[in-house]
Design goal:
6-stranded antiparallel beta sheet; Jelly Rolls; elongated; alpha+beta
Length: 218
C-alpha cells in the first residue's frame, strides 16, 4: 500500500528545489567579480599569480642571462640585459588563474616602457590550467601600446566573451623578431573582471538529492 510523503519529506523537497532554482538563477545571471591589484598583491601575496618564462630551444643562452624580472608588489617589469641578440621568440608572463567556476571577461592595465614593435610585443597570453609558457602559447592581445612611451603610463582595457572560457591569462612580452636591445616594459594598475559560470555538477547533485524524496514508500 502506498503512503503519502511525510511533512518532513515535503519540507526537505521544497528546500532542495529552492536551492536548485537559486543556483540556476545565480548561474544564469552571469554575476561578475572584480579583482583589483592596483594597490598590491602581485608579489607573492596572492597565490593566483605565477611568473613563467620561455627560452627558445635553439638558444643556448638562458632566459635569465638575457632578461630581468622585477616585482614591487604593485607593478612588475621586464628588461633586456644584452646589447644585441639575433634569436627571436623569448617570452615571459606573470600568469593569473581564475577561481573555479569563473571565466575572465575583462582586464585593464597600465603600461610604460620603451618597446618598439620591431623588437618586443607587449602581450596578454591565454594560459590553460597547468600549461607551461611555450613558443606556441596563444596570444589573445598584443601590440596594444604606442612605441617609445618612456614617461607615462597608459591604461588599456580589454574585454572577452564569456563563451571564450578564458580561465587564465599571462601578462608579459614576446620577442617575435630577431633583434632587441635595451628594451623594458612595466605593468601596473591591473584590474581583472570575471563572470561566474554555471556549476553543472553541483546543480546535478542537488537535483539527484531530491529524487529519493519523490519516491513513495509502499
Amino acid at each position: 500500500m502506498k503512503t503519502m510523503m511525510t511533512s518532513l519529506q515535503k519540507m526537505l523537497l521544497r528546500a532542495i528545489c529552492a536551492a536548485v532554482m537559486a543556483g540556476l538563477a545565480v548561474s544564469a545571471s552571469g554575476a561578475t567579480v572584480t579583482y583589483n591589484y592596483t594597490a598590491g598583491g602581485l608579489n607573492g601575496t596572492d597565490s593566483a599569480w605565477t611568473a613563467k618564462t620561455y627560452t627558445p630551444a635553439s638558444e643556448p643562452v638562458a632566459w635569465g642571462d638575457n632578461f630581468t624580472y622585477a616585482n614591487s608588489g604593485t607593478s612588475f617589469s621586464y628588461g633586456s640585459t644584452s646589447s644585441t641578440r639575433v634569436v627571436a621568440n623569448y617570452r615571459a608572463a606573470l600568469v593569473w588563474t581564475a577561481p573555479a567556476n569563473e571565466v575572465i571577461t575583462g582586464i585593464s592595465l597600465a603600461y610604460k616602457g620603451n618597446l618598439a614593435k620591431s623588437n618586443w610585443d607587449p602581450v596578454i597570453y591565454r594560459i590553460t590550467s597547468g600549461e607551461t609558457l611555450s613558443g606556441t602559447t596563444v596570444k589573445i592581445t598584443e601590440n596594444f601600446v604606442a612605441d617609445g612611451d618612456t614617461t607615462s603610463s597608459v591604461t588599456f582595457p580589454f574585454s572577452y566573451n564569456r563563451s571564450d572560457n578564458i580561465q587564465g591569462i599571462g601578462i608579459g612580452f614576446d620577442t617575435p623578431y630577431a633583434t632587441y636591445n635595451g628594451w623594458h616594459i612595466d605593468y601596473s594598475s591591473i584590474v581583472i573582471t570575471t563572470t561566474i559560470v554555471p556549476e553543472p555538477a553541483s546543480l546535478a547533485l542537488l537535483a539527484l538529492g531530491a529524487l529519493p524524496l519523490l519516491r513513495r514508500r509502499r
